[in-house]
Design goal:
The protein is mainly beta. It is about 10% helix and about 40% strand.
């Protein structure tokens, strides 16, 4: 998709500086490209210049977008009517909300490795919680936002913390055991089976 600014095709940021030497500029600004030239909103900025926000799509729908390195990435609407990106960490993982097709209300999403996933698919349904919006993500992958308990429309703030994958933990344990075994096998004075 070709990024647009004011109806013009652009390949990178448009940079502007104030020319008035009597009032030196304290900020340098960059107009971020949009998907169609119809407008956009920036919501979050990470430490490496990535921006999460929203841009108007070709038929007027709002699309979550991620802007980095002079490029705009259309996260899309996740099959729904609209989406909005609200947070981004330094790894370029984006979070936000979208309106799923056939569902009343919003759901939170996470966009990573080129794929957007409904956060409700990543939490245990037995918790009885519906993630409505993701508003921020830190560099540890923790996500904050709003949601509600099933059967209760009262909004609650939440913190989602990634659960280590069992395979990863098992692999780490196996690697430690192997390293320990190798270390012991190099020292004949240390018994292999604790005896």
């Amino acid at each position: 998709m070709v990024p647009h600014i004011d109806g013009r095709d652009v390949s990178g940021p448009v940079e502007q500086r104030r020319a008035d030497d009597a009032h030196p500029a304290e900020f340098h600004y960059t107009v971020l490209p949009t998907l169609t030239g119809q407008g956009g909103t920036a919501h979050a900025l990470n430490d490496v210049g990535g921006v999460a926000g929203t841009s108007t799509g070709s038929t007027g729908e709002l699309h979550a977008v991620y802007y980095a390195n002079g490029q705009i990435v259309d996260i899309g609407t996740l099959g729904g009517r609209l989406s909005d990106a609200r947070g981004v960490n330094n790894s370029g993982v984006v979070v936000g909300a979208y309106e799923p097709a056939g569902v009343q209300g919003l759901h939170g999403f996470v966009y990573r490795d080129g794929q957007a996933i409904d956060l409700n698919d990543l939490i245990d349904p037995a918790e009885g919680f519906v993630v409505e919006s993701a508003r921020g993500i830190n560099n540890s992958g923790q996500i904050v936002g709003t949601g509600h308990r099933v059967g209760d429309t009262t909004p609650y703030s939440y913190l989602l913390t990634p659960v280590p994958e069992p395979a990863g933990a098992l692999a780490a344990t196996a690697a430690l055991a192997l390293a320990s075994l190798r270390r012991r096998s190099r020292n004949p004075h240390v018994p292999l089976l604790g005896g």
